[in-house]
Design brief:
This protein is 30% helix and 23% strand. The protein is built from 7 helices and 13 strands. The chain has helices at residues 30-38, 52-59, 91-107, 116-124, 163-168, 219-222, 227-247; strands at 5-9, 11-14, 24-27, 42-46, 64-67, 111-114, 129-130, 154-158, 172-175, 182-183, 190-196, 201-206, 212-215. It is globular, with a radius of gyration of 17 Å. 40% of the residues are buried.
Amino acid sequence: MKKAVIGISTSIMVDREGDFAGYERIYVNRDYIQSVIAAGAVPLMLPLEDSEENLKESLDLVDGVIFSGGHDISPFRYQEEPHAKLEEICPERDQFDFTLYRLVKERSLPLLGICRGCQLMNVAEGGSLYQDLSQKTTESLKHSQGHGPSIPTHSVKLSPESRLSRILGREEIKVNSFHHQALNRIPDTAEVSGRALDDVVEAIELKDYPFGIGVQFHPEMLQEKDEDMKKLFRALVDAAREYGKNRQ
């Protein structure tokens, strides 16, 4: 059986010092690559660029897409001015990701949003973010854990009827946490499928869409040791295989 190909959105970094100070690099963390391979698919990095034509050509090569983590999303994308605790934004990446998301949706490609990717889904669908968890009116748990990336540090309760709960076979999971922002207003096209015990949204799913899941935590950092997180990537790959069969 031909393997499914999973596209992974990339980010940009600038060398701060050394022989290549100021040099720009397009990259994605290795964990994303390893997670796709472990799930039985072929990873394909989608390079950050501003050509919609090239992005369309790239999407001809893939059966599913992961939207990776990274920068804060500009609050202008959800009609807000910047909060004092907003961290680094990257307008170039926003342009790339929002265009990519639109093209993915037009093709009904299976998609998984991770951390920023989950926030991107929410904003692209018409929702908004807390620019910092200090904006919440109730006390929050620690969502930037300060521990190793493969250590789960808080609980998430899943909606029993959600696709995510069915995939994992659980109604409560332990996750890692590396975010200072969170989903605020949820659009009508999505529904919450998981919350932390302080009510922070940790997972959403697109309504009336073949496979569209967003998670605020980082399953790619957990999957090597956590069988539940492996199941999430396998589910994406299964959906991608089905997409590939129907496209042929």
